[in-house]
Write a structure and sequence with these properties.
Blueprint: E1 11-21, E2 38-48, E3 50-51, E4 56-66, E5 70-84, E6 91-104, E7 107-110, E8 115-117, E9 129-140, E10 145-151, E11 157-158, E12 162-163, H1 166-194, H2 200-204
Parallel strand pairs: 3-12
Antiparallel strand pairs: 1-2, 2-4, 4-7, 4-8, 5-6, 5-9, 6-7, 9-10, 9-11
């Protein structure tokens, strides 16, 4: 018996989040010179929907768009969080961290393979989103440089829905139904055996 129809068919999807790393050419205090800012674009390739209680892989690509007064940018780590809305504290369901390596001009990819998000089996629904944090170093044309470990831009990226695996429920129902049929059959057989057959003497009378 096939219950594959109870399981949603996943499809490929690319989720995108964008942020601006501000001007830090003068140090920790952020400046307002847009020429010293760096645009960050995070692309997350995965499947949707996710199945409750299963492992999910995400291929991340990061692209930087440096301003004209930025000499170079280097992204070193990416941390991805699966969160759900919660106030006042963050409610992080699961997360993963990868080291980054160049994947082209102003592009970085994971050197550790896909990110893996593995929510608990009791996590399901559609009210989830991704947050992320980066470690990066920026060199400016004025000779200054600035590094930030774990910069969190506060961007929210809507995550895939996490749906129940109804094949498990289906198999449970099939098993329960089979057990019910067996019980009925055994009960009927026992009842038949409990009925006394007429004796030959009774039949002669």
């Amino acid at each position: 018996m096939s219950l594959s129809g109870l399981r949603p068919e996943p499809r490929s999807v690319v989720l995108v989040g964008e942020a601006i790393f501000p001007d830090h050419s003068a140090g920790h205090q952020a400046g307002s010179n847009a020429n010293d800012a760096v645009g960050i674009r995070l692309s997350l390739a995965t499947k949707t929907p996710w199945i409750q209680g299963e492992r999910n892989e995400i291929v991340a690509t990061l692209d930087a768009s440096p301003g004209p007064e930025v000499a170079s940018v280097d992204l070193t780590t990416l941390k991805l969080f699966l969160e759900r809305p919660s106030m006042p504290l963050r409610d992080i369901v699961n997360g993963d961290l990868v080291l980054l390596e160049p994947g082209g001009a102003n592009r970085w990819i994971s050197m550790d393979g896909p990110l893996v998000i593995y929510p608990n089996a009791d996590v399901s629904g559609s009210n989830f989103f991704f947050g992320f944090a980066l470690s990066l170093n920026v060199n400016y044309t004025n000779g200054q440089s600035y590094g930030w470990g774990g910069w969190d831009p506060g961007v929210r990226i809507i995550s895939p829905d996490i749906v129940g695996d109804f094949t498990r429920i289906g198999w449970f129902m099939v098993s329960a139904g089979s057990a019910g049929l067996i019980f009925v059959a055994v009960t009927w057989r026992s009842a038949r055996q409990g009925v006394s057959r007429p004796s030959r003497t009774n039949r002669a009378n």
